[in-house]
Amino acid sequence: PGSSPAGGPLRSRSVTAVSVRVPAKVNLQLSVGPLRDDGYHDLVSVFHAVSLFDELSAEPNEELAVRVEGASAEEVPADGDNLAARAARLLAERIGVHPGVLLRIRKAIPVAGGMAGGSADAAAALVACDRLWNAGLEPGELAELGAAIGSDVPFALLGATAVGLGRGERLSPVPVKGRFHWVFALAEGGLSTPAVYAECDRLRAAHGEWIGAPQVSERLTTALANGDAKELGSALANDLQPAAIMLRPSLRRTLTASRDLGALGALVSGSGPTCAFLAESDAHALDLAAALSDAGVARSIARAYGPVPGATVL
Ligand code: C5P
After folding, report:
1. Is domain 16-173 classified as CATH 3.40.50.620?
2. Closest approach atom of ligand 1 to CA 43
3. 197 lines ligand 1 (CB under 6 A)
4. Interval between CA 19 and ligand 1 midpoint (Å)
5. I need a surface site. Which of 41, 206, 217, 238 has the fewest CB within 10 A?
6. ipTM of the complex as predicted
7. How many Å lie between the centroid of ligand 1 and the Cα of residue 77?
């Protein structure tokens, strides 16, 4: 500390590695509109960032490379299809540099679990490479690049709690009082997001349902503003849940068990198969996690709180 190379100011020193921490999300409300011509659905998605974090570090390298570490590392593509690699390539193109970077990803967010783990890594790569390459893009510019990678990437950059409209990428922050405590039941194996959306369309067509434009739940936003966990628990809603259960019938048992064990609310997270349970307090979350673990209805259990900030340089 204190010495700077070649007498230059400290802040112009070239960066050797940048580490970024990025949270998982759960959708407190996920209302799915009709299928659009571009294959997406208009959404009202109330995103909530929780304290389950992936860590990504970016360091100079000859070529673009990705290394994934952690429990489920082998389930993540480590080639050019990796969302973090795509994000780094897109940013490099945008600012006109060679994408020479090694991205090391330490995964804690479940893979293909409905918690936007891949999008989180893409967001982390944008933030890390922006810093590594001294690009200095504005948050809005990073969000725009993020949206080109995936619908959930802009939220992983923003964090906290926000309503997402359009594909989920048009965000406005939602005021939240205090902190909410969550327990997550992680399932064996993932679910494909496009398959769950397609199953949702199929179920709706089979039931002849008419689907209107989704609306933000005022009950939910009021519960968030008041820090009212009980109200929030009963306002949780996910239109993808029936489809996820259809593709993974064991989720029904997981959700029922959590209600029997006193969760304030329970729902499938995003497109699943992770299930999210709201607890009254940190202590209640600990009890609920132990009871769920004993009930044997999940591969593993994680506890987390929200809201937390989006992708942050460490
Ligand atoms: O944007 P992203 O690549 O994460 O989306 C993955 C898939 O999820 C899309 O290809 C689409 O099938 C589905 N999706 C959707 N409507 C949205 C977001 C995602 O149908 N608003």
Report:
1. no
2. 21
3. yes
4. 28
5. 206
6. 0.98
7. 19
Q: What is the pLDDT of residues 131-186, one digit of tens each?
A: 999 999 999 999 999 999 999 999 999 999 999 999 999 999 999 999 999 999 99
In DSSP notation, the chain reads ----GGG--GGGSPPS-EEEEEEEEEEEEEEEEEEPTTS-EEEEEEEEEEEEEEEEEEEE-SS-EEEEESTTGGGS--STTSHHHHHHHHHHHHHT----EEEEEE--SPTTSSS-HHHHHHHHHHHHHHHHTT----HHHHHHHHHHH-TTHHHHHHBSEEEEETTTTEEEE----S-EEEEEEEPSS---HHHHHHHHHHHHHHTT---------HHHHHHHHHT-HHHHHHH-EETTHHHHHHH-TTHHHHHHHHHHTT-SEEEE-TTSS-EEEEESSHHHHHHHHHHHHHHT-SSEEEEEEE--BSSEE-
CB of 168 within 6 A of ligand 1: the answer is yes
Catalytic, 25? Answer yes
107 has catalytic annotation: no
List pLDDT tens digits, range 67-83. Answer: 999 878 888 888 878 99
Pick the catalytic residue from 25, 54, 107, 239. Answer: 25
Can you give the residue ranges of every domain in the chain?
16-173, 180-306
Q: What CATH architecture is 180-306?
A: 2-Layer Sandwich (3.30)
